């Protein structure tokens, strides 16, 4: 039933994460239930099957929802700072297991080991944030218009939060949601991407241990596995008041309609089409590092990856040459080898999308500056290693308007004032991340002004990719409008209640309305 891996190091990693038992040899021996279709997790690193898990059946989903609903009754009445204490313990476990979990993220998803560790660090950071937040879930008090009355608002948990996540941040996005939802008093049901089910199981095991140690029901954290059909069980389910969904815009439109049809809430974190504006006052070295990391990091598979560079015509050739040179130094290969800059894309479908983008941009009139291609031979057996490519293109090309989830970077020129670059940068359907490289204060402020970037994230002298957890994360337009992570993003996980208390013996009505009996 279960697949095996001959990779002893990966077997050790799975043991450290308690996904397989200590005496399992190199077999991953994993099976989550006796029914359901099998989903096999295939590593894009070497093309090997890591393990198979079973897809959650509708009957199993029903049990999970009931378990979560029961757990909510216990969890919601626990004081928030005590819930924060449980999240603190969960965080201790993440710190202890940072290396194996980072390694599994890298092996199952294909991002570099450093980025895998970074992803676990993001989990640690959001848990720290959530622990502090557990003592700050505040509402406002207002002055009542009626004498002897007090008015205030308070926040209560929503109940079951459904989390649907994408393959590219297989663990961090879950923790952004779950760490906040937990301290808010919600319970969570998570459906990870069907492309990365094992990291999901690893996280669930960690959470389950911590809840058990605190004599708390495991249903506070639930895991379901499978493709979109399993996700739909949650989006259609009225017992799930909030669905937080991360993934493509195509998926987000379906989720929004299904959840909206039952007047549920959805938090959407969808595709991006992010640009860096490079002005004549930019620092060339910073621009090159920011643009290259943004475009090739995670093999161009971040929602915040840099897709477009909008360069002032006066410095266009200089910036173009420097970036093309930098691409010449990139090392592509096994992401667990820290000497490599670029690992594989997730699967062969992603390779096809990448190839299609390069064909299409030429058909539309673009010019290839750095040739792409699929790597073959030793070390590239998975067929998922592609060369980061650069093309000169125009913003209105259909392919440029589209998010290709692969390392393809489009270069384009602007002339005149920075407003012309901002118009290009805003001239796409997505609105996630944006950046300007400039040492000119006036240009930077115009980029950040009300007439500037229309994205959820706008950076100065930083690339588009890589956000800290302290700020709210998300984007506008087809990116979905959701906000997760820091700032006051926690409010979406709670319901707001306004309370008015009368401490007199009279019953005056609001707006001075008279009603005497
Ligand atoms: P995807 O849309 O194919 O799948 C994402 C998740 O949605 C998976 O778990 C999938 O099973 C589920 N799903 C798909 N259709 C569904 C439906 N109709 N109902 C319920 N669930 C459904 O995305 P992907 O390929 O895994 O990830 C890449 C995409 O995610 C990119 O577009 C990227 O920009 C986006 N992304 C956005 C953010 C963000 O914060 N804005 C973060 C990470 C990834």
From TrEMBL:
Keywords: NAD, Oxidoreductase
Aldehyde dehydrogenase domain ranges (all copies): 33-498
Signal sequence interval, chain numbering: none
EC number: 1.2.1.3
InterPro entries per UniProt: Ald_DH/histidinol_DH, Ald_DH_C, Ald_DH_CS_GLU, Ald_DH_N, Aldehyde_DH_dom, ALDH7A1-like
One Pfam family of this chain: Aldedh
Active-site residues from the entry: 269
GO molecular function, one term: aldehyde dehydrogenase (NAD+) activity
Membrane-spanning segments: none
Quaternary assembly: Homotetramer.
Family note: Belongs to the aldehyde dehydrogenase family.
Name the record gives this protein: aldehyde dehydrogenase (NAD(+))
Species this protein is from: Leeuwenhoekiella blandensis (strain CECT 7118 / CCUG 51940 / KCTC 22103 / MED217)
């Amino acid at each position: 039933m279960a697949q095996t891996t001959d990779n002893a190091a990966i077997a050790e990693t799975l043991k450290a994460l308690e996904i397989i038992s200590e005496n399992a040899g190199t077999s991953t021996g994993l099976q989550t239930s006796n029914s359901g279709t099998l989903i096999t997790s295939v590593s894009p690193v070497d093309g090997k099957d890591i393990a198979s898990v079973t897809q959650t059946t509708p009957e199993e989903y029903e049990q999970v929802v009931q378990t979560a609903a029961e757990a909510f009754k216990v969890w919601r009445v626990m004081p928030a700072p005590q819930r924060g204490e449980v999240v603190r313990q969960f965080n201790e476990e993440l710190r202890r297991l940072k290396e194996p979990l980072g390694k599994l993220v890298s092996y199952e998803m294909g991002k570099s080991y450093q980025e895998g560790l970074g992803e676990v660090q993001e989990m640690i950071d959001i848990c720290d944030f959530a622990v502090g937040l557990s003592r700050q879930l505040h509402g406002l008090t207002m002055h009542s218009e009626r004498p002897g009355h007090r008015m205030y608002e308070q926040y209560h948990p929503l109940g079951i939060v459904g989390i649907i996540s994408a393959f590219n941040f297989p663990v961090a996005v879950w923790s952004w949601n779950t760490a906040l939802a937990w301290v808010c008093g919600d319970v969570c049901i998570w459906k990870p991407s069907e492309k990365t089910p094992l990291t999901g199981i690893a996280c669930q095991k960690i959470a389950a241990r911590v809840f058990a140690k605190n004599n708390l029901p495991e249903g506070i954290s639930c895991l379901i596995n499978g493709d979109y059909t399993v996700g739909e069980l949650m989006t259609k389910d009225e017992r799930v008041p909030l669905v937080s969904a991360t993934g493509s815009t195509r998926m987000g439109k379906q989720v929004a309609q299904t959840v909206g049809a039952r007047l549920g809430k959805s938090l959407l974190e969808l595709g991006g089409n992010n640009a860096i504006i490079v002005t004549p006052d930019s620092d060339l070295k910073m621009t090159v590092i920011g643009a290259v990391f943004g475009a090739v990091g995670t093999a161009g598979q971040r929602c915040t990856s840099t897709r477009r560079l909008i360069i002032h015509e006066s410095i266009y050739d200089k910036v173009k040459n420097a970036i093309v040179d930098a691409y010449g130094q990139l090392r592509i290969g096994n992401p667990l080898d820290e000497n490599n800059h670029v690992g594989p894309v997730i699967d062969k479908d992603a390779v096809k999308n990448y190839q299609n983008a390069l064909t299409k941009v030429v058909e539309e009139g673009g010019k290839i500056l750095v040739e792409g291609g699929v790597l073959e031979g030793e070390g590239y057996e998975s067929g998922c290693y592609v060369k980061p490519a650069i093309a000169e293109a125009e913003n209105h090309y259909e392919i440029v308007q589209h998010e290709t989830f692969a390392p393809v970077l489009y270069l384009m020129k602007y002339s005149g004032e920075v407003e012309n670059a901002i118009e290009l940068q805003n001239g796409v359907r997505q609105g996630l991340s944006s950046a300007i490289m400039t040492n000119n204060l006036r240009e930077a402020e115009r980029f950040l002004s009300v007439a500037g970037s229309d994205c959820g994230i706008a950076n100065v002298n930083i690339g588009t990719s890589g956000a800290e957890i302290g700020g709210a994360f998300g984007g506008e337009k087809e990116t979905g409008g959701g906000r997760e992570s820091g700032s006051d993003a926690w409010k979406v996980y709670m319901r707001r209640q306004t309370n008015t208390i009368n401490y007199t013996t009279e019953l005056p009505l609001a707006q001075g309305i008279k009603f005497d009996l």
